[in-house]
Amino acid sequence: MVINRYFKIALIVAAIFYAYTSARNAHDFEVFVDAGSKIIQGKNIYTPPFAQDLQYYYSPLCALLLAPFSGLPIIISQLLWIGFSYFLLYRIWILVIVYFDTSQLSKKQMQLWFIISLFLSLRFILVDIGYVQMTIFILWATLESIQLIRRDRYILGSALLALAINIKLLPLAFVFYLLYRNKVKAAVSCCVFYLVFLFLPALYLGWQRNLDLIHNWFTLINPGNKEWTIEAEDGPNSLVALIPVYLMDTTGVLTFKRNFVNLPFHQVSLILNVVRLFFVLLTFAFLRTFPFKAVKSTIRQFWEMSYIFIAVPLLYPHQQQYAFVYIIPALVYLSYYVMINWNMIKQKVSIPLWIVIFVIGVNFSPLIGRDVISGYAFEVLLYVRILPVATILLIPILWICRPKDELKTADQ
């Protein structure tokens, strides 16, 4: 009990210190707030100049919602957003654990589960908070909306999911998941709310100006744009950043070669899209049923969604490290599975396999930090795209750790 209290105090102190440090160094949230300032001044939020010289990629509605922050000193607005993000992290944990049967866990096991999950998630949480980004909000909105829909609160759940999609497209895959799991009313409502949120800013901006901004936005984020086909610079970690740099000659921050062949652009593009299609089709292996069939097991639902949470940041282009906050539910599921089945796992897993698991798992920990392994080593890992490789390797691990009893019962 004393250790638990001291751990909480240490966690709170560290969180406050990190929040202040992050807010003092203006980062991505300044770009969002700047867009809010520009939109109420009648300027185009998708053309230069930009705060931090960073392109604004989010929706007109997002800029309008953040406009009130533009009247505050940037450190205050960033502290407020970070504080809100901390609350959302707490809420995410509450939303996640309802899928699991925690009655069989002791208090010590619950604490251990939380600590392991936090350790594996901390790298991405720190990056998201450090850049004062929005992925924690997007993850919360996804989980909260699904939970509301599960409780038959379709309107509120669909509206929240549509808002998250309007801000950033990451949760779009869950509309198809809802449709597949026979939540047709929720999926259709989400599409309706998305259209409402798309044109809602017209009440303030006027119809034509809102249409112009939507056109600018869709042109900017069009996945057919060439810049979303090859991302050779350091930072992005999706399949778009991983596959091309190994199949054609590209220029990155470091000078040593990454590609083992040198294929023409059209072949690389074809291979990339085939791999993307494979990950999309792999979803059906995790769903394991025909469309429009609901499943009752909550842990099975969470296992299914865990795959989607992994696949989404891999499939979408231009996904930075903070986008991998989205895989946190999968890390929580795997932590639970290993803890519950530890006696069986330790008998079956060999030492070489433990080494492989450790090498994969360390990529999701704060041990892979610029200040821990040195700046150069960190750049090398970014350059050779270790994060997306490790994330892909999570998929077979998630498959092996499937809830076999629940799946067997449902398949009978």
TrEMBL record:
Membrane topology: Multi-pass membrane protein
Residue intervals passing through the bilayer: 56-76, 82-100, 112-142, 154-179, 186-207, 265-287, 299-316, 322-339, 351-368, 380-401
Subcellular location: Cell membrane
Cleavable signal peptide: 1-26
GO cellular component: plasma membrane
Organism domain of life: Bacteria
InterPro entries the record matches: GT87 (IPR018584)
Keywords: Cell membrane, Membrane, Signal, Transferase, Transmembrane, Transmembrane helix
Molecular function GO terms recorded: hexosyltransferase activity
Family assignment from sequence similarity: Belongs to the glycosyltransferase 87 family.
Protein's name according to its UniProt entry: DUF2029 domain-containing protein
Organism: Mucilaginibacter psychrotolerans
High-level lineage: Bacteria, Pseudomonadati, Bacteroidota, Sphingobacteriia, Sphingobacteriales
